[in-house]
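Please check this.
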Amino acid sequence: MTHSREESKRTPSTGGGRGEVSSTYRSTSLKELGKEKAITPTTLLTSQLKNANSDFSQDDLVKYWIEYANSLTIEKIHLKNTLLSCKPVLKENFIFEVAVYNPSQKDEIFDSSPLLLGHLCERLNNNRIKMDIRFVEKDEIEMVYTTTEKYDYLLKKNPNIEKLKELFNLTME
């Protein structure tokens, strides 16, 4: 009888928040070697994903990114907030970029990337998806302080604010 290593997975331990590695072994007999294995839904899905490279849009990427974020439990609230505030931007060749504001956000996204990318690969039917994480440059962050700066910023976001200002005869202080 021979033994083959089927998988190695990380399981949470109770002490100190560190994970321990456990292995599962499967035995195979000589009689089983000649027999065809049954195709399970998981095997079929895995083989379909290996050949998947469908095109997708920026909107599709963001839609499934948000879907994943909303599926997270309360224990992952920091990751959820990070994903909702740092949306991906599709580049070329199925690569997308996520701009984060601090190292903590980068670590959160990086640590969850296998599950996140698995979700995106499945939902977008594309296994060639790759993610780049970068820090937002200080020049990119637009900080508004004064009342006029706040008004101008909101006006850029929604030009209808000017109509409201005129309609209600509002002035800036």
Q: What stands out?
A: The CA atoms of residues 25 and 47 lie 22 Å apart. Helices lie at 30-33, 41-50, 58-71, 77-85, 103-124, 147-157, 160-167.
